[in-house]
Amino acid sequence: MPQVDIEINNRLYRMGCQEGQEGRLRELAAYVDRRLKQLTGGGKLGSEAQMLVMTCLVLADEMQDMAAGRGAPAGLALDEAEVAAGLDQVARRIEEVAARLERA
């Protein structure tokens, strides 16, 4: 399993991913980092764990809105199973990050 170093809120995380998904993982990390900074005023709102949880909740809310047909970009067709799988993946990542933060 490939390991990829990603940076979110000026902190490095080593994450595992499927072969060939390294670039996608970096893209997703960059997106999460941008959204976190947008939502928290540059990453200065509460503890790091609180900022990450808030960002994940906002992203999950946006995904659910898109799945329900509210706010989906024009021409984007969403499969309910794909959205559910994506939400499961986000939940697992939240748990991984929270566990790492607790150990730090």
TrEMBL record:
Name the predominant localization: cytoplasm
Q: Which InterPro entries match?
A: Cell_div_ZapA-like, Cell_div_ZapA-like_sf, Cell_div_ZapA_N
- Biological process according to GO: division septum assembly; FtsZ-dependent cytokinesis; septin ring assembly
Arranged from A to Z, the UniProt key words for this protein are:
Cell cycle, Cell division, Cytoplasm, Septation
The record's annotation in Gene3D superfamilies points to: Cell division protein ZapA protomer, N-terminal domain
Name any GO cellular component annotation: cell septum
- Keyword Ribonucleoprotein belongs to the record: no
Entry's localization field: Cytoplasm
What is annotated about its quaternary structure and interactions? Homodimer. Interacts with FtsZ.
The role this protein plays is: Activator of cell division through the inhibition of FtsZ GTPase activity, therefore promoting FtsZ assembly into bundles of protofilaments necessary for the formation of the division Z ring. It is recruited early at mid-cell but it is not essential for cell division.
Q: What is this protein called in UniProt? A: Cell division protein ZapA
- UniProt organism field: Azospirillum thermophilum
